[in-house]
Structure of Phospholipase A2 inhibitor 25 kDa subunit-like:
Amino acid sequence: MCLPPIPTFPSQVSAENGLACPACYVENSRRCLSDEPLNCVGNENRCIQYLKQELYDGKLTIESFYGCTTDSICRLGSSSKKFLYLTNETFKTVKMDMSCSGGMGLSVPFLSYLGFRLVGLMI
């Protein structure tokens, strides 16, 4: 009998760490726009842009989100998988694209966005 070890999970820290990332979620679009930054917590030291596309039975569904993440999620990288459903012998293709940016203070995408907003206020 095989008894695998009980997994240990890192402690969840909910204290803000000083990093802020653009944050949004949208369905059926490849990009989402963020008006408000999300304050990252614990070991969330990266900003992520994530896009998931699923093709199943001729229908394409898309989800996109931006937010805070950890180094371990960023190391997973992008992937594309094809699944065969034996019950009806159809395929489902799932493509996940993600990109991560470093995190020091406010993220670069948010600072760029903030700069454009400030310029717009001055005009």
